[in-house]
Amino acid sequence: MTYTLYPYYWADEKEWDELLAIENDDYQHAEFLKAGAARVLVPVRKNFHEKVHSFLVQGPRALEFESEIKISSPLWLPLYQEIEEAQNPSSQNIAVEKCWETKVPTSLILLQADDSLPDDFEVPDDCPDP
Asked: How many domains does the chain have?
């Protein structure tokens, strides 16, 4: 699932002052709370896109089936296949790119009353310079 947050001015003008005043120590959470709107993209398994579209248009009654779904139906996914796909991502041909580290800004800098380091604190030799 992916999402895109839109600025405060996508909300009703009456809410702008309230949205702009929101503060949070977690930057991403604050941006979420301040958003005036959001667009969410939810991946849907092959052969289910028509049912999901019906649900979005008609609501829960779109999930009612006239008769029981037959095992031969493309809407019926064997349990073993679902488990295999969840446990074996290589079968889905998903490209995995190089990993990276992310530093998240925070106002929570000091975790103790004073700023001294513990006596037994040592910086590892292979520690990168910040």
From this structure: 1
Residue 123 covered by a domain: no
Residue 93: is it exposed, middle or buried by C-beta count within 10 angstroms (0-12/13-18/19+)? exposed
pTM over 0.85: no
Is residue 71 within 8 A of residue 35, CB to CB? The reply is no
User: Are the C-beta atoms of 4 and 36 separated by less than 8 Å?
Assistant: no
* Residue 50 forms part of a structural domain: yes
* Amino acid at the residue 15: E
Q: How far is CA 112 from CA 27, 49, 104, 109, 115, in A?
A: 22, 52, 20, 9, 7
Any domain includes 121: no
Per-residue pLDDT of 64-81, as tens digits, reads 766 555 666 666 666 667
Pair of tokens at residue 76: 């019926």
User: Computed from CA positions of residues 33, 36, 37, 38, in that sequence, does the dihedral angle turn out positive or negative?
Assistant: negative
List phi, psi (to 5°) of 37: -165, 170
**Domain coverage including residue 36:** 2-88
